[in-house]
Amino acid sequence: MAYIKNKKHSNLLRLDDDAVLSVWHKLQPIDRVQLASSCRRFRKIFEERDAAQYAIFKMETLWQVSVKDIDSYARLVAPLIQELRAYTPCVGNVRAKKFLKSMTGNCEPLRRVIFKGVRVAFQLFELLANAKYLTELCLQNCRLLDKDVDMITMLSNLMVLDLSKNNDITACAHSICRIARVWIPSIWCMSSNPPNICAYSTYNSHIRIPIWCPYFSNSVVIVAIWINCA
């Protein structure tokens, strides 16, 4: 790969398409991305054959990428990501932070972010602020704080918001209300217990907010809350 980067006219130009494709099939996915970021011929193959598999991207795969290659990796992969997932405490490490930062200015296709059991990094909220078309956000059991919740108010196109199992914000009904007021002028809560948002869904001109009440069980308790925003 270093040879390809440093030579203006690589010997790869002398190979026919079948030979280049044969090399491509022998490469691991991470090697394909790295070569595609360095060589025009490999990039064309990547776009034609491998791009679709990055529509759903799992942050756990970043361990395969060296720290010095994260930026170029993110620039190539980020425009392909429609759904970003993380299920292990990986988002606070160096690779994840660099990836989220490099992805921030290049995340237009991003529609869904699903993180579970992850202590999210500030870079994630920077990314979310630039994800103009994000419609679904799940930060379940991510040990969120009030300041994290406040940053979610920037997401004006959300249709689904899941903040369940975040005990740090269970008693903070005022933060939850501030989120709701981004989209609607007022909110009525019929539960006397400190509520925690489980999900936010829109149905035509109404909004339904199921409430999770930790005093009863870990399961979702649906409280009848309907807000007319017509």
Detailed description of the structure:
This protein is of the alpha/beta class and about 230 residues long. It has 3 domains: about 1-55, no CATH class; about 55-135, no CATH class; about 165-230, no CATH class. Helices cover about 35% and strands about 15% of the residues. It is built from 9 helices and 10 strands. The strands form 3 sheets. It has a 5-stranded parallel sheet, with no helix packed on it. The chain has a 3-stranded antiparallel sheet with strand order 7-8-10, with no helix packed on it. Helix 3 (about 30-35) packs across helix 4 (about 40-50), helix 5 crosses helix 6 and helix 6 (about 95-105) packs parallel to helix 7 (about 120-130). The longest helix has 11 residues, at about 175-185. The protein is elongated, with a radius of gyration of 22 Å.
Q: How are the strands of the largest sheet arranged?
A: 1-2-3-4-5
Query: What percentage of the residues does DSSP assign to strands (E)?
Result: 5-15%
Span between termini: 58 Å
Please give the radius of gyration in angstroms.
22 Å
- Give the integer mean of the pLDDT values: 68
Shape: elongated
Helix share, percent: 25-40%
Tally the helices: 9
**Residue windows where pLDDT falls under 50 for at least 5 positions:** 1-7, 182-230
Biggest sheet statistics: 5 strands, parallel
One letter per element, helices H and strands E, the order comes to HHHHEHEHEHEHEHEEEEE
Structural class: alpha/beta
Protein name: F-box domain-containing protein
